[in-house]
Each structure stands twice: as structure tokens, then as C-alpha cells.
Amino acid sequence: MFSETVVILGIPIDNLTIDDSIERIFSMIESYQRDHRSRLVATVNVDFVVNTLSWRLSRIRHPELLDILRRADLVTADGMPLVVISKLLGWSLKSRVTGADLVPKLAQEAAGRGKSLYLLGGRGKVAKRAASLLQERNPELIIAGVDSPFVYIEGENLFDAEEMDREIVDRVNEARPDILLIAFGNPKQEVWFNRNRNQLQVPVSIGIGGTFEYIAGSIRRAPLWMQRSGLEWLFRITQDPGRLWKRYVIGFFKFGLLIWPAIIYDRYKRLSCKIVCDKNADSFEVTGQRISGTFLDVITLPGRLDIVTLESVSGAVDQAFSRPSSVVLDFTQVYFVDSTGLGFLMRTLRRAEKQGCELYLVGITSKIRRVFELNRTWDFFQNNTLEKVDEVISRLRARDKLPRFYYSSTNKPGLTVLDFFGRLDAKQMETLDAKKLISSIANDCIINLGQLDFVDSSGLMLLIKIQKMLVTSGKKCVLCALKVNVEQLFRITSLDRLFHIAPDLDSAQQLIERTL
After folding, report:
1. DSSP readout, 364-389?
2. What is 77-135 written as a DSSP string?
């Protein structure tokens, strides 16, 4: 079923009202009874976008946060600026859905449906105060628990984070809530959930930032007219000018500089569409063949990939995914993609990953690639993009069934070289025998990350454990050949000061030979 999604600077935002969002959340609770998969709801505002992205098109400021938001099960627009920007990009979001509006209505609905809430985070006793007020307003509401722990997402403290997380998760799981409200703030709440999602036995977790403080009255909401006109941020500054003025001023300035190139290019392409529009604007074709034991569906997309054509294209994709299949989306005749088209593509790629299918994009022209780049989505699709269908067929015939993450170990006299490949995240850590890996290192060690495409906090915790074990036993540890996004995550979590990092393997060996 086609679900509208609008992409704003690389982040997919679901086009839902607050009532739609609540229904989706309770639907997720029902889904948990079938698949036992914990789901994340993120409420994204301008601050999220600014914290995630770099000033440069080719750089990402917080790779882990961006990856989490792109893979969240539901993302809402927490702020009018995003609604306004979506309209400028051609298809307006129905409304904003803020944590401060969502939680009270969610509590009311949960009380009527017999579902429970667990409040996690918040400063001091604000979570307990918020829980009391929610229960006072909804006498039948079940509060499964309230907890305000401190969690770590950066620095050397990550070494102890796993044990601390386990204690928090155990308390949450013992309470068995239906909905977990996480108020650690951005990006801490999203990162914490992501590294613990496979241990959490909670149907739905929602990152809500400072919502407890709004409910408890510690922070006042702006007048309704300011909320509706997108000026709530201005009211917030007056509440705490010393802390917030710089954050909002710099944030909106950066957001504006990042978004305007995408808006201008979208307007230019829309004008070009009116001139170029032809009979292929809405038509598309589906062909299929069997390759190496799997069925390959090739969907030749229409000239326009926007809200007008997405319903029919979505139907073709649904049919392809209804059977074990690899899917190719052929962009040969596409001359226009808008923010909803990008949202559809991002959700489709995520769907393919969840179902264990393979999705490829072929025939992308330089102009369409520019749309991807200006909207900060090219990095998301790059590894799944090829020139022609023939290249997809060759890859399917020659592919090796390798796991998403694996490593190899090479022992030399007095030295062990570990090569990491693929994606080292919380999901891969679930199946990785970390103790076996760590205990196998008996010498000085070089960890070559040249083939590691992505790492999150869970993967960083593994690297910290290896480093700690080696240093404690008087041995040396050097990382080398970090890719740009991996290196950036080390930088933003302040771990670049904890590790010795070399540009390549030869430099790492020279560093090992010297006294560290």
C-alpha cells in the first residue's frame, strides 16, 4: 500500500496528521504481537536536520543519527518550518506532529485501549511529575514505570555503557510497557534506542525530547497562534535566551542555506517538466526474467516520479515484492523526481532490506543524480546504483552470499591484522561472537577499517573493548584506513582522541613499530 513520504534534506518524513500517527502507533503495537520487532517513532524538527548534516554536500555530520532516522518506522514533522519547506518542495505535509502534542493525546488513547506507558529520561523529577499529571487527566491510564537514568553515547564512557544499558533495559522489560517514551534529547534518545532495540521487549519507542517538561509545566508552550504560524521557536528563545538564541539562530541559518538549492532546483525542474512533458510522463513498463534461481523484475519508471504517478508505480513494486525477487528500477526515461518520489524510493529500499530482497537503480542521468545530491539522498542509494540492467544481471550471477558484516584475521610475527568488512551495527553485533574475536588477539593489533562501510555506537563499543583489552595487557592497537563517514562518527563521539588512527596499513605498521 502506498504511503506518502516527503524527503527533506535526506530525511524521510511521513505525511500524517496527529490522529493518523496515533493510529499508526497502535497498529505497530498489534504488529509486535506477530513479529516481536521493536519499532521507533522519531519526531524530527529543524534541530534534528541541522545536527545530522554537514555544510558540505558530500559530508554527513552525524552518520549514525542520519542512518537511524532513515530507518525509523515512523517519522513525524515536529515543527512548522518543516511543513512550510515541504510545501516549497512541491507537496505539503498535512500538519506538524510534535512530541508535546502527541504524548497527551497518545496517553488519552492508551487509557481508552488499556495500553501502558513507560516514561524514560527527563531531568530530575520532571518525568514523575509528568506521569502524575498524565494519570490525573486520564484516570484509567496505566503507567508501567518511570526512570530518569543518565546514558552515554560518546567518549571513553562507552566502555561501560553496555552494562549500564542492560540495567535500564531490564527494568523496562520487567515492566512490560506497550509504549516507551524516551526523553534523553536528540541525538542521545535515538542512538540509545538503536543500540538496545534488539534487547528491548517493547512494541513502540518514541523519542520525545523535552516533552515531559512541557507536560509538567517546567517549560511553557507558545500561544496557539505562534504555534500555527511557525513562530514557536521565537517564544522558546524568550524562555531561555542565554542557552537557546545561538542554537536557533545558527540552526535556522544553516538549515536555510542547505535547503534553498534543493528548492530552487525543484522549481526549475517543474518548469522544465511543463515544457518537456510528453506521452511517457505517466506510463511505465514491467518486465521479468529468472536469473541465478531468483526472479528479476525490471520496472521502467515513468517520466515523472511524483505524487501523480506513485500510486500506480507502488502497485507494481508491491507485486514484485509479493514473491522472492530482485527488483530493478529503470530511470532511463525519468526526467523529474520530487520529494515524494525520493521518499517512495527510500521507503522501497528499506522494505527490500527488511524482506531480504535486492533493489537496484539503473539509468540515472546526471540531472536526476543532481536531484538526489541536492536533497542529500545520493549516499543512501549509491551502493545500489548501476549503469545498466546488464550490470545487475552480472552481479546477480556472480554474487557471493556474504553476511552484512564479517572480518578476517591475519597473524604475523608479533602482529595481528583484523580486516572488517560491510556494516557493523547493533543488528550485526547480536550474532557476532565478540568474546571469541577479542580473545583471539594475542599480539599487537592493527584493525583495518578500509572495507567497513558503516559503524554505529554498538560497533564502536566493540572497538573500545578491543583497545582496552590490548592496552591493559601491554599491547598496541592502531586503526587504519577509515572511510569518511566512519571517521566522522569517531570525531563526533570524541573517540578520535582515544584511538591511534593511521591513514593506511603501511602507516599503521610503522606506528606499531614505534613506541606508542
Report:
1. --HHHHHHHHHTT-HHHHGGGEES-H
2. E-SHHHHHHHHHTTS--S----HHHHHHHHHHHHHHHT-EEEEEE-STTHHHHHHHHHH
Domain that holds residue 355: 285-398
- Separation CA 22–CA 25 (nearest Å): 5
DSSP characters over 129-179: HHHHHHHHHSTT-EEEEEE------SSTTHHHHHHHHHHHHHHHHHH--SE
> Taking the mean position of all CA atoms in its chain, how far away is CA 402?
24
Q: How far apart are CA 516 and CA 510, in angstroms?
A: 11
Rg (CA), the chain: 24
pLDDT at 450 over 90: yes
The CA distance from 274 to 272, in Å, is 5
Angle 48-49-53 (CA atoms, 0-180°, nearest 5)?
120
> What does residue 501 show for φ and ψ, rounded to 5 degrees?
-125, 130
> What is the grid cell recorded at 292?
541465478
Q: For residue 508, give the H/E element and its range.
A: helix 505-513
Give SS3 for 280: coil
- Does this model's pTM top 0.85? yes
Regarding whether 161 and 50 lie in a shared domain, the answer is yes
Would you say residue 280 lies in a domain?
Answer: no
| pLDDT interval class at 259 (50, 70, 90) | very high
**DSSP state letters, 179-236:** EEEEES-TTHHHHHHHHHTTT---SEEEE-TTHHHHHHTSSPPPPHHHHHTT-HHHHH
Residue 279 resides in a domain: no
Contact 147, 158 (CB under 8 A): no
362 in helix, strand or coil? Answer: strand
Residues in CB range of 76: below 8 A, 6 or more apart: 13, 14, 16, 21, 41, 42, 43, 44, 96, 97, 98, 102
290 and 182 both lie in a single domain? no
Query: Looking at per-residue confidence, does 275 or 133 come out higher?
Result: 133
Lowest mean pLDDT among 79-88, 328-337, 393-402: 393-402
Buried b (16+ CB within 10 A) or exposed e, 253-284: ebbeebbeebbebbeebeeebeeeeeebbeeb
Structural domain includes residue 437: yes
Q: Would you place residue 280 in the very low, low, confident or very high pLDDT band (cuts 50, 70, 90)? A: low
Integer distance in angstroms from the first to the last C-alpha of the chain? 57
Tell me the one-letter amino acid at 349.
L
Q: Which three cell numbers stand for residue 394?
A: 552480472
Task: Note whether 380 and 450 are same-domain residues.
Answer: no
CA 12 to chain centre: 9
Q: Cα 331 to the chain's mean position, in Å?
A: 25
Point out the domain boundary residue: 398, 417, 438. 398
Asked if residue 262 is part of any domain, the answer here is: no
CATH, residue 353: 3.30.750.24
Looking at the chain, the number of H-run helices and the number of E-run strands are: 22, 20
